[in-house]
């Protein structure tokens, strides 16, 4: 094996590990921001991404994305990866990307979506929705890529898509019980565990170095260092402006806005990290950090209930980040060079992908609603999904359990049938 | 002077507080509790074993009111906390012999804001 | 320094860091799964691994493992590492492996083992037990290696060994108070903090990339990318099948089983990650995820109390993973090529190591019981080990402490003697 | 791009990511060790480091540190980095170092410093104080470096500096309310969350591989593997001796002392990791682990209130670690070679930097006291900074919030003015 | 109608509940508490300072029963919660004036399942 | 025999306990609570929405004493817990009918350490 391939391979394996570790970040962030009674459920949704989602993408999606191009719209067949890189490493890295897209959705529909419905959504997203639109941008011969769209590590391919799917599904499923009052005012649901949420944010920030710099898929890339620096600076600037704006608007340095400001900076720089100068990265971050605060307000005004702010962070800043390349690209940006072409292409690309995500998610959501159901019963929502869907609350201080009975191994015994009836009863009345 | 212990569903707490304020009962103490009555057990599963969750999360409200306020307060709580399903909770009434206000060190004058 | 050595060295240093970070994963996983009153204690046991265990292996164990071979049974003297790799980096990586083996034990004996007894176990395991059996497999000239046993990153050397030592010690020490009823039924002890446990699982999953891919000890390995991909796929498949089986058997997507399913997939692919195809990795993971659920039941039936499921995850799946190489190896597997020889060697190897671990752990446990004692007093167990052995509970919400008195620095003053008496009294009556 | 530059660049990018991830470690460690009511605030201070601190260093500080030398005291102008490394990667790595220095301060002043005052301190530290003294050691032409001072990864430049700034500011701001009794005895404030604190410690330990080994800034360094091994051994030895000493002195294996012992070992090996033998690393770690326990007592005796032990860990062991190079350096150490020169230079260097940090922090602290104020009001301290400065408590189990009102977006409305008055009133009476 | 406050060891909770069910007392409320009585202080150590843990974890059970059930209930609790060591806890009895069932809004009929 | 319910500020707990010990009241139970009275609401902000924190953290002390000890105990609590600002808390007094010691199974003899 040549040194060059070896170098690229370890680079991509290590960055893929970082990207996959981000799932832990999503999990902690969400578990910290939802109410205690649903902290296990959001964690289990991330496990659904890492298991069903990853297998779906590996078995189906990766071929649609990186297979041989058909009509500039879809890939099929054998995966084509970079020549001087282990194909397995490439595939692993791409799995991390696919499940990042679907993890975005999990936060927005938290505390009320059926676990089974979520698994269906994950499988469809990783098998079809994400691979198809990403083929347009990243697949060999994809039509958006051919138009010249620049989306280095996926502000559009991942974040706009995930964010608008999240918006659609949060809309279809409806807000959490009591979230909005009749007059449109909002009831505050306290986040259960801020230190846990911030731990998630730190992991996401850490993993994002892999996300963006790893997207070179080439350790020899001359801009690799710049990408990493830009990524960091945008995150720092996003967090800084979120603190400043939140102090100015709310008279409080709001921790969840600070977290989301940093993440917004990361989302926004993802498209352009390889194409813009460091001062542009700072400007992009500063804007993203403020934008996410306004966008959170817009989502509330739409009466869409997004418990973790996924739409504001990923959807809105995915779009902004994509457009920002059109503004700040060193070679073809409007502000840097006066050319408008790239900006228009970016606008088209991100709009199309947002639409694709929104419409297909509305479709899936409606379908689920009519079939297996998308939302838990009102009683289950009151009780919390942890105990209903996963059998155990997140935190157990008191030794309150009574004697258990071991479930017969090897068959589904009567007790279980009864148990189900009981749960049903206890839920019904 | 009476003390009311109301055991209610946690999700009804804010509604009850709102109702209490409406009838000018502004002092009360809230304690998280777990309870057991006619509400059925939930069943959990952990590592292949079922277990009964024989205690449900409840909120206990302790409210000291003057005799005149007793019935209105009870009605306010029932009005706000009732769902009609098992587990809505109970109200118990006790006699209070004395009440002091720690801030002033004197006999409490704030029950039902008597000083209003 | 040649590029090749430099590349190998940074690869091994980075993956060693990942492997060592797994200790944090073990710690959080265990702290989340035990009861609140013992969360500090399990954390401190991981610190014992990282300190006493690491030093013991560095000073003694590594020589027995990688020293000059004697009779195919034991190494001694100077450590022999790969030629194109910094010896220090090699040593660091091997420390991570040794303490992983001993960390497996910590979970199974949680909530009742004396801290001092645990330290003795750690030191003996890292100095002798683990290095000796691993020399058989990995040492130059080890007899199992010479027979052709394939255990790439240690399904047997680490997980079977650790799992069977855990079984033996959990057996010797006996179950937690009230864990089993007279009729053999099991009382459920609620896990204190599921989000913490899942954070641990994500860290373990992350670190496992270092564990398996780092075991190449060579960045130029042609299968490095495949190893990483196989590792991930087995974990994903393990988690997926654990969710499916737990829903089918328990009508609940059990979070602790999901976590253990993923970990079981990781354990099972550890031996074969470099030798099997990706579809085999998925099959191995699927099997492991189901196996771990059954195995958890078997352990309960034996009335062995394993609070975190270490025996089911590491012991049973270590054995299974080792055998799976015999079935799926691309060159000599029974199912892939029809050859049975490798499978028999694997069977022999994993059996011998399981026996070695089990017997020596029974020996150590019995010895401890007769000398310094292995189990805390019943009162200490009631009170929780956090306050008894470490002076402080894990979570302190209420400001409940009274005035403290600073302990005289420089000598053991009377107050301490009294304090000990007091503790004794408060425990006795 | 040459393979050599590529290799160095990915090495530095990955280790920079590790160093920056350490901020998450600081955050969790502190959030676990302070009282519940201030857990959000310490987290937000780390965000201040990552945002305002990082930008300040990037825009100003890095030039003073690595710019063209002036009078051996200060750099200015274009940053000069290693020739065979991406300048962006170098800059990113240095950002991580700068904010590590300032993060040390955050713990010592926890639970009582105004958030605005902390932001000012961070900006000044990252813009001026840290870059100037570090230029003396690491800048091209810095006067301490020219004297031959050896501070490989910053025991002095970062830890002595941060530790003595922490001491000065903890002194200026005064102890937490009720911390010391009139007779000088200490009231114990229980740490809120030990598992969280230990998670932070594991992340710090993990990141430290990047901190020390990454400081080679060169993947081809012949001592890179040794550095990583020494780093680990010192941490292991520090934790081990802290456990032993705490059992001997306190009859308890104190978890916070164990954590701080490991960290003390890491701090102490930071200067010498590239210069000393592995057995010296172990000795340094053993000493550091004991030293940190005594030093914690000294700080208490000074009636300085340092909630997380930052002065003992970073200040005292930064000094010790720097001196230890003078003792154990393979080429010029007093104990290894009999030469005394290096030891004297080390003593001078670490003393000067401690003084610089202490004096400038006293200056800043006094200035802040006279201007915007450095300490929150007594009522805010009682209430906890989480709700006062950040609007939300760290943990919210009970659904206790009433209806919220959305804050008008786009302007500062009356409600806010009122809100501020209310907060004021509620604080005043 | 009486109210029984029983302060017990946390580890005895499930045993007490079992016993209560056996004698058909099915309604009660459980509150985590910390208490202090004759049980000795524990001592902790944190960062080189000892401290007294002058409060021990306890569980408080609140049970409202009809007068007939008072003695059996007390005996059941004592039977299940006694270990004979310091810290076993106390039982206090109070008079209850009224009881309401929030679900029905009427005077409670479920005390000791009077309707059975 | 009387039962005193004292609702106090959390930060005053240790001072009250100290004072109680001084007057030889050594048995009591402590329960974390949240309360509402004349103390003003705090306001929080989360994600661009203000919310009232209409409950403040309090500690509830439950102390059963003999009649003779009633007034001294009340005075001790007021002495230790008073700050003079809104939110200092209340003390309520109830009658206790019976008291048992679970350890002995007999009527409690430890109230105010009568056996001393
Ligand atoms: N006899 C009782 N003594 C004390 N608390 C009781 C009693 N009966 C019920 N409770 C409390 O009231 C809660 C609701 O009781 P439950 O019987 O479920 O309500 P409902 O009668 O509306 O079905 C219980 O969880 C428990 O906390
Ligand atoms: N006078 C009292 N008033 C209120 N609660 C009390 C009183 N005495 C004891 N308790 C409660 O009972 C618990 C057990 O008391 P303790 O004296 O330790 O039991 P025992 O008498 O069995 O030794 C205490 O922790 C406290 O919660
Ligand atoms: N009528 C009441 N019934 C029950 N608890 C009360 C009552 N009034 C006040 N409290 C409790 O006392 C606490 C302090 O009351 P508050 O009115 O703020 O004190 P102050 O009168 O000193 O200003 C409240 O938070 C609440 O827990």
Automatic annotation (TrEMBL), chains B, E, F:
* Name of the protein in its database record: Transcriptional regulator
Residues where O-UMP-tyrosine occurs?
51
Please give the Gene Ontology molecular function terms for this protein.
ATP binding; enzyme regulator activity
- Name the GO cellular-component terms: cytosol
Q: Does the keyword Ribonucleoprotein apply?
A: no
Superkingdom of source:
Bacteria
Question: Keywords on this record?
Answer: Phosphoprotein
Asked if the keyword Transport belongs to this entry, the reply reads no
GO:BP terms for this protein? regulation of nitrogen utilization
Transmembrane stretches, start-end: none
Q: Which family does it belong to?
A: Belongs to the P(II) protein family.
InterPro entries (alphabetical):
N-reg_PII, N-reg_PII-like_a/b, N-reg_PII/ATP_PRibTrfase_C, N-reg_PII_CS
């Amino acid at each position: 094996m040549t040194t060059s391939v070896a170098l690229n391979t370890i680079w991509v394996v290590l960055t893929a590990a970082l990207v996959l570790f981000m799932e832990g970040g999503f999990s902690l962030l969400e578990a910290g921001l939802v109410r205690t009674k649903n902290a296990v459920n959001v964690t289990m949704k991330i496990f659904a991404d890492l298991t069903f989602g990853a297998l779906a993408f590996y078995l189906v999606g990766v071929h649609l994305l990186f297979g041989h191009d058909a009509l500039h719209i879809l890939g099929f067949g054998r995966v084509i990866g970079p020549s001087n890189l282990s194909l397995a490493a490439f595939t692993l890295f791409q799995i991390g990307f696919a499940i990042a897209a679907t993890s975005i959705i999990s936060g927005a529909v938290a505390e009320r979506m059926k676990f089974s419905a979520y698994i269906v959504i994950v499988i469809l997203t990783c098998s079809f929705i994400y691979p198809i639109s990403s083929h347009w941008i990243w697949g060999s011969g994809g039509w958006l890529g051919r138009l010249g769209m620049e989306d280095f590590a996926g502000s559009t391919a991942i974040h706009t898509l995930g964010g608008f799917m999240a918006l659609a599904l949060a809309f279809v499923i409806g807000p959490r019980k009591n979230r909005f009052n009749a007059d449109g005012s909002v009831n505050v649901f306290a986040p259960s565990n801020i230190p846990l949420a911030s731990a998630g944010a730190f992991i996401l920030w850490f993993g994002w170095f892999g996300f963006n710099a790893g997207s070179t898929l080439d350790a020899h890339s001359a801009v690799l260092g710049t990408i990493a620096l830009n990524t960091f600076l945008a995150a720092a600037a996003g967090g800084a402006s979120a603190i400043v704006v939140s102090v100015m608007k709310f008279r409080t340095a709001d921790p969840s806005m600070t977290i989301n400001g940093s993440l917004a900076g990361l989302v926004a720089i993802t498209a352009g990290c390889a194409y813009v100068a460091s001062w542009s990265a700072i400007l992009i971050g500063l804007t993203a950090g403020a934008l996410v605060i306004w966008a959170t307000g817009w989502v509330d005004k739409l009466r869409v209930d997004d418990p973790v702010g996924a739409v504001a962070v990923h959807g809105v800043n995915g779009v902004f980040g994509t457009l920002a390349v059109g503004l700040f690209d060193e070679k073809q940006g409007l502000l840097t060079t006066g050319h408008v072409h790239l900006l228009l292409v970016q606008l088209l690309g991100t709009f199309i992908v947002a639409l694709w995500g929104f419409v297909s998610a509305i479709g899936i959501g409606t379908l689920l609603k009519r079939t297996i159901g998308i939302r838990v019963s009102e009683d289950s929502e009151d009780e919390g999904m942890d105990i209903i869907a996963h059998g155990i609350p997140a935190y157990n201080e008191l030794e309150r359990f009574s004697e258990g009975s071991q479930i017969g191994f090897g068959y589904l015994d009567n007790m279980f049938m009864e148990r189900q009836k009981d749960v049903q009863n206890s839920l019904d009345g | 002077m009476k003390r009311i212990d109301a055991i209610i569903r946690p999700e009804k707490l804010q509604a009850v507080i709102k109702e209490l304020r409406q009838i000018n009962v502004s002092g009360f103490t809230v304690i998280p509790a777990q309870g057991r009555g006619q509400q059925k057990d939930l069943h959990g599963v952990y590592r292949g074993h079922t277990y009964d969750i024989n205690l449900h999360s409840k909120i206990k409200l302790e409210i000291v009111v003057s005799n005149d306020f007793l019935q209105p307060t009870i009605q306010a709580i029932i009005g706000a906390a009732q769902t009609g399903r098992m587990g809505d909770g109970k109200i118990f009434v006790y006699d209070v012999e004395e009440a002091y206000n720690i801030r002033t060190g004197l006999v409490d004058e704030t029950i039902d804001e008597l000083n209003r």
